[in-house]
Amino acid sequence: MSSIALQIGLVDFPEPTLLILGDAESFFWFAQEISSRRHVTLDHRGTRLSVVPTASSGSLAQDGAQFTWEISATEALFVAGQLSALAASGSPAHHYLDPERNETGVQIIASLGEYDARVLAGSA
Where does the chain show beta strands of DSSP type E? Predict the structure, then answer.
């Protein structure tokens, strides 16, 4: 399974948002990668999110449309649980994925079945 069904983009919601869209299978895959402490990169139309395991506390950094989320072990278990619950929801839903430290001013939202990929058309 590849991450091909996951799409990301910066969108203008009430707060700047890094929106991750996907189907149940893709979110289960993403949850497994994060809980297994693997380095994962999602890249779509110039927006990139790299999830990098770290032994220290987690943080989200931004350079334009490039994001690096250093994710601690505790945070990885929590986020993997959120993504698994989202994938198992069986109906449209979303979760806010909150890095331990986020000074970017950008909110991360994982969404299943709530938005058409066209919402990402103007991203990056």
Answer: 7-12, 16-21, 40-44, 47-53, 59-63, 66-71, 93-97, 107-112
pLDDT (tens digit, 9 = 90+) per residue, 39-83? 999 999 899 999 999 999 999 999 999 999 999 999 999 999 999
CB 106 within 8 A of CB 12: no
What is the pTM (predicted TM-score) of this model?
A: 0.92
DSSP symbols for 13-37: SSSEEEEEE--HHHHHHHHHHHHTT
Burial class (CB in 10 A: 0-12, 13-18, 19+), 24: middle
Domains of the chain: 3-116 (3.30.1360)
